[in-house]
Specification:
Strands 2, 3, 4, 7, 8 and 9 form a 6-stranded antiparallel β-sheet that branches. A two-stranded antiparallel ribbon has the order 1-10. The N terminus is likely disordered. By secondary structure, the chain is of the alpha+beta class. Helix content is about 30%, strand content about 20%.
Length: about 240
């Protein structure tokens, strides 16, 4: 089955690679980003939140403050919470119909998205570590994507994946197929078609990868390393989509 949206156009990939600074995060050979289903299953919490504060643009280290709006998975944080290693800044928001590739910032620098607009509504995939919330998923994951509202395609998909993740393989596959088919029937709705394409991808077994050997966050940042990590990740994502 052909996909409605490619993981990343060649033009977008070229632009992302051109924007990469001299040092980027380093990942081991064979690393691949988690699939969206894996990301939802392995995160400790999925929280829809509004960015309500943080450090000024240009500051290298700091944090943003997030006001929780809804808990998609896990417990709802009781109050505004910080995310260290992040900053306020500009840049374009996530494409609401892009459900495969991460925000372009994840393809440069620290290999995760770290910059957010003040007032942005973002779906965060989080882990709990050392008493703090930290990004889940590792390099090149869709751990933090802008969404227009609580009914955005990415929020719908996260809810669905979080609900089916605990089920056994056969049950999960049956529910994904049923949901995909129902969405494909809504041929005149771009959002439904984008979600259906991602569900089709979820039905394919993920490529083997040495995910456990990816670098761990260091106070919210990833250590600098080989710039070819980005190219390897792009190649892996393309291979997943082409299989």
């Amino acid at each position: 089955m052909s996909f409605v949206r490619p993981v990343l156009s060649l033009a977008a990939a070229a632009a992302a690679l051109a924007a990469i600074p001299a040092a980027a995060c380093s990942v081991v050979a064979g690393y691949r980003p988690p699939t969206n289903l894996e990301l939802a299953a392995e995160s400790d919490a999925i929280v829809l939140g509004e960015v309500v504060g943080g450090v000024d643009p240009g500051v290298t280290e700091g944090e943003i403050a997030v006001h929780p709006l809804a808990a998609i998975k896990g417990l709802m944080p009781g109050q505004d919470f910080p995310l260290r290693g992040m900053m306020l800044g500009g840049g374009d928001p996530s494409d609401p119909l892009e459900l495969a590739a991460p925000h372009p910032e994840a393809l440069a620098g620290a290999c995760i998205r770290r910059t957010f607009r003040h007032g942005a509504t973002v779906l965060f995939f989080l882990d709990r570590r050392g008493g703090e919330w930290v990004p889940a998923g590792g390099p090149f994951s869709r751990w933090a994507e802008d969404v227009p509202d609580q009914d955005a395609p990415w929020v719908q998909l996260a809810r669905f994946y979080a609900r089916i993740a605990p089920l056994d393989g056969e049950q999960r596959t049956a529910l994904i197929e049923a949901e995909r088919d129902a969405l494909l029937a809504r041929a005149d709705e771009p959002a439904a078609q984008a979600i259906a394409a991602e569900l089709e991808h979820a039905l394919a077994p993920p490529r083997p990868a040495t995910v456990a050997e990816a670098p761990e966050p260091d106070d919210g940042f990833y250590k600098p390393g080989d710039v070819t990590a980005v190219q390897r990740a792009l190649d892996a994502m393309r291979a997943d989509r082409d299989d």
